[in-house]
Amino acid sequence: MIAAKKAKKGNGVVAAIDVEENHTIAVVMPSTALGNGTDSEECVAPLQTPHLHWDCLVTGPAVSSPVQISTLIDHGSSLVLIDEDFTWKLSLWLRTLSTPLPVTLALSPKQKQSFRLSHYDTNYDLLRPQPPTAPANKTASWGPELFWAKKNVVRELNKVLPELKAIMDDKCETVWEFDVIGVINAQIDSLHQQTLLAAKDKAMKDEFRHRFPVDIPHNDSLPCNVLFRVQLKDTNQIVQKCSYDCPKKYHAAWKVLLDSHVESGCLKHLESEFSSLAFIIPKADPTVLPQWVNNFQLLNLNTVPDNHPLPRIDEILKDCVKGKFFGKIDMTNAFFQTQQYTCLGENMSGP
């Protein structure tokens, strides 16, 4: 809509006509030179004339190449007007005016009205809000029915609750206060028992120190009346299989295990064609040496079964029932403490 100002005072009349986009507005008023157009046959300016359009290229931050638009020249407004959709399309910045701009319409009333066009003011400062006000206390008007109902409920509770209290007292146990001295005495007794058990453990190991060696005893100190003899099915069979890989970080630990068995006489340097695959399994505690495992699966297939196999599981459980004290022994190195028949050295195997 295009607006025109009213004339201040006078007999002249101003008309404002709202037309489509392809037309402009003509202002018609009485002319002293031409009259009202009936007394003169000279050429009079038409009532409507086409708009003056100008095709141009515009650019903005949101477009990669200029955009061709059609602009309106001399539309009678003192402001440069841009379509809002086209503003968002070009990503143009929207800024507020430094000073308010008065706007009047051609058909505006005589009484002036001022308002803002920038934003809607709610009269509430988000950065400096007002302190919340306490809600007003509303006193409820209790009716006589509610008053007597409350009296009846209280009277009934006073009659029923003592009976329920007696029933609950019979079912509940008396809760004593927290006994600090008793807890301290119990903790002292527990520490005394732990100290006593540690002392007895040390005394037992000192008495039977020959049964609890720190390390593997030397092979020469072991009894030689019981020897282990391996009988092969095929003495010409050679077991060939790829060895296991060992990470470099376990080389030092494996060397410690090998050296300890060599020093104790459990391992000897042999030139036998028989060999067993060996590998180690790390334990959860990194400070403890890993578990040494020998893979005798292929060698066992070429050996004659032992005439004295291991006891059955049910026999082991029967023996466990008869025991009074239980413990555990690491049997990892028990295999290396079994001496072999010396004349069968050529059939011995090593890692």
TrEMBL record:
SUPFAM superfamilies (UniProt xref): DNA/RNA polymerases
Gene3D superfamilies: HIV Type 1 Reverse Transcriptase, subunit A, domain 1 (3.10.10.10)
InterPro entries found in the cross-reference section: DNA/RNA_pol_sf (IPR043502)
The protein, known as: Uncharacterized protein
